[in-house]
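Tip: read the tokens left to right.
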């Protein structure tokens, strides 16, 4: 009985490869990786804004429109994050199913006074519990079983919290290039400061930079980080004037290349958390 039921399952991967698989196209690398984890072998997942590419201001190529034209499913972050993808969908005459990964999720309001493209902070994946919402939305559209990845994300959420638990709340402060970590901060009890707003296109004023320098000195903030795609010049200058060392690079809105430290969503969250917690412990 067992053998008879196992045989068709064993034969399935070979059959699936013999026929063209349905195609899902994701707007950027982080949503793309979550989609790949959900899709398994059943779907081909393509990503438009790839590793280390700023997905806020991505310039699509003609081949990206081509990819969408024949796709069965398109996956966007939504909440004003990847507006270029919406325009591309319209231009490409996309006729498949559109998934908005953040739909119905309890996103935070965008920081008051910060430069943003909408009323909500779109960086929902920075909270692993919200990333589970992304996964559920994608799995519903692809018709696949997401149990394994959901279990891993639940464990990831617990692991991140445990890394910060021994650090006194007053030391859980970090300075980064742009305002991408509000969801992470709310979920894991970390306060983030940033000279750039929610969008990487915004440039801070001289007064904003001066105020941040005073704050870094007054609070003796040691967790100071660049990001993989925001312009590093402002933050380097700010760190220098405040007399603090830049502790490395966080991955905010894009994964690293496959041979880098943040090749998947889970690797990215672990990498960022390890760097942040180590820098805060050193300053305690
Ligand atoms: Zn961002």
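Filled-in amino acids:
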């Amino acid at each position: 009985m067992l053998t008879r039921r196992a045989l068709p399952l064993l034969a399935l991967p070979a059959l699936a490869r013999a026929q063209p698989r349905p195609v899902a196209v994701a707007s950027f690398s982080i949503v793309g990786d979550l989609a790949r984890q959900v899709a398994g072998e059943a779907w081909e997942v393509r990503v438009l804004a790839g590793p280390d590419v700023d997905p806020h201001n991505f310039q699509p190529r003609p081949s990206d429109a081509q990819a969408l034209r024949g796709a069965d499913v398109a996956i966007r972050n939504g909440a004003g994050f990847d507006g270029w993808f919406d325009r591309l969908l319209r231009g490409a005459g996309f006729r498949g199913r559109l998934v908005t990964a953040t739909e119905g999720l309890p996103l935070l309001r965008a920081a008051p006074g910060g430069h943003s493209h909408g009323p909500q902070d779109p960086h929902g994946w920075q909270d692993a519990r919200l990333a589970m919402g992304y996964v559920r939305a994608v799995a519903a559209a692809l018709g696949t079983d997401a149990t394994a990845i959901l279990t891993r994300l639940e464990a990831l959420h617990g692991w991140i919290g445990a890394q910060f638990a021994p650090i006194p709340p007053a030391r859980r402060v970090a300075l980064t290039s742009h305002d991408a970590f509000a969801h992470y901060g709310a979920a894991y009890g970390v306060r983030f400061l940033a000279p750039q707003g929610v969008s990487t296109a915004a440039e801070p004023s001289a007064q904003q930079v001066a105020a941040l320098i005073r704050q870094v000195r007054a609070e003796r903030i040691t967790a100071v980080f660049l990001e993989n795609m925001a312009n590093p010049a402002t933050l380097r200058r700010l760190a220098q004037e405040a007399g603090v060392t830049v502790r490395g690079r966080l991955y905010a809105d894009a994964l690293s290349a496959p041979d880098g430290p943040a090749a998947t969503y889970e690797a990215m969250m672990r990498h960022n958390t390890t760097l942040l917690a180590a820098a805060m412990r050193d300053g305690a």
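Residues 56, 123, 178, 180, 252-253 surround zinc ion (CB under 6 Å). The chain is about 45% helix and 10% strand.
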